[in-house]
């Protein structure tokens, strides 16, 4: 399997622009997670889905952030409008509920907002 | 809220020495605990998963222990190699939500 695939790997955008990050989970995994990693706050869970349904979005920082999972093989995390403090690495991860909860991470999307 | 602490924040050892990485957590009502490795510019790779009912897990040179009652886990890496240089993160699972520590950055000197 190719693992969790994220795009873009790197993005530099100007403040106020919309940013869309994409994720393809491992086939057959029924859980999908979005995490954010910064030097100051470490790794934080933003939202997670089970069978394409958002289960817990309490980590989403504010209304500028939204996430969708229209089908089992695709998810997006959108930031609109973006701000410099959104600069971080955004990780997508997936898990199989029957697999002992081991979570598999993508390579991350490195976002810089200037 | 679950708080996860990893000590030390950084560690440098000569090749061949055994590594001991510590993780502590505040809420013992956990489902599992995972140790991850992160290389610079990369994602996280799961190393070991310990279920709450288990005391330890082993994989090759890696051994992780879990003491729920005291809120502690330890990752042992035997006979360290330069390729073990990375950041190691501990994550505590409550259902499907993971709370991460800040990590221990390990440098193994050849």
Biggest beta-sheet profile of chain A:
7 strands, mixed
The most extensive interface, with participating residues per chain, is: A-B, 22 and 22 residues
Give me the oligomer status: heterodimer
Measured between the Cα atoms of the first and last residue of chain B, the distance is 41 Å
Question: What's the count of strands of chain A?
Answer: 11
Distance between the termini of chain A: 36 Å
The helicity of chain B comes to under 10%
Question: In a nutshell, what does this entry contain?
Answer:
The complex is a heterodimer of chains A (114) and B (110). Chain A is an all-beta fold and 114 residues long.
Textual characterization of the structure:
The complex is a heterodimer of chains A (114) and B (110). By secondary structure, chain A is mostly beta strands. Chain A contains no helices and eleven strands. In chain A, the strands form two sheets. In chain A, strands 2, 4, 5, 6, 9, 10 and 11 form a seven-stranded mixed sheet that branches. The model of chain A has no long low-confidence stretch (mean pLDDT 93). With 110 residues, chain B is mainly beta. Helix content of chain B is 0%, strand content 60%. Classes of the chains: A mainly beta (114), B mainly beta (110).
């Amino acid at each position: 399997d190719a693992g969790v695939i994220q795009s873009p790997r790197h993005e530099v955008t100007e403040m106020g622009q919309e940013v869309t990050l994409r994720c393809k989970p491992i086939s057959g995994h029924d859980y999908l997670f979005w995490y954010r990693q910064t030097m100051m706050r470490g790794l934080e869970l933003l939202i997670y889905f089970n069978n394409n349904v958002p289960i817990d979005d309490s980590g989403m920082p504010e209304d500028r952030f939204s996430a969708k999972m229209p089908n089992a093989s695709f998810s997006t995390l959108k930031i609109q409008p973006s701000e410099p403090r959104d600069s971080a690495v955004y990780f997508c991860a997936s898990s199989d509920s029957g697999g002992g909860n081991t979570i598999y991470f993508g390579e991350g999307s490195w976002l810089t907002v200037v | 809220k679950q708080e996860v602490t990893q000590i030390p924040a950084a560690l440098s050892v000569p090749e061949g020495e055994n590594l001991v990485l510590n993780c502590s957590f505040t809420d013992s009502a956990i489902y599992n605990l995972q140790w991850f490795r992160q290389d610079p510019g990369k994602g996280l790779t799961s190393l070991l998963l310990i279920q709450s009912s288990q005391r330890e897990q082993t994989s090759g040179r890696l051994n992780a222990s879990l003491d729920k009652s005291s809120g502690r886990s330890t990752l042992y890496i035997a006979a360290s190699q330069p390729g073990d240089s990375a950041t190691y993160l501990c994550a505590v699972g409550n259902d499907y939500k993971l709370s991460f520590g800040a990590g221990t950055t390990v440098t193994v000197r050849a």
